[in-house]
């Protein structure tokens, strides 16, 4: 019952529907920031970094799919047990999981390509049988001017769902993640879809069809 207490205020119907709609909107309009802040607040006892991932997972996981959590063991264990308890979904190896939840700040850049390269990319007959990756970051912003701290990874996006180009700035994610994403998505329609989730409960979707160009890594004063 202790785990259930953590979601005492979570509405399994309305909150789940809200998060799911935000995820669909985010992946349909890549680079647009969507918010699940209110729902994350109801899961705050899991920790700031886990709350956003948990909210997304509760909207997607069930007995028909499996998941993997990649973080330090303490954080991963908390989220893994919570998701098994609440969704009845099974934890699996990263290479076999339908949904993979990464804690960017706890993963060395040297390990990123290996971890991303292990994800399911689907097949030519069934490209949809691929993994969806969720990455926690510190801050997400649609323009650099809205970021006022630390180092920012600035990116330009183009592709389906984007009118021309769109710019985003991210704090708390090494550029190696985007290089690894490009590698994994090199043989379209094979590849993975990705979501960035901030501590504040903001979401940006990056489907495999989105082209991401690194503009700069800047120190914002």
UniProtKB/TrEMBL annotation:
A molecular function (GO) term: lyase activity
This protein's UniProt keywords: Lyase
Coiled coil regions in record: none
Family annotation (InterPro entries): PhnH-like_sp, Phosphonate_metab_PhnH
Keyword Transferase: no
NCBIfam families cross-referenced by the UniProt entry: PhnH_redo
Protein name stated in the entry: Phosphonate C-P lyase system protein PhnH
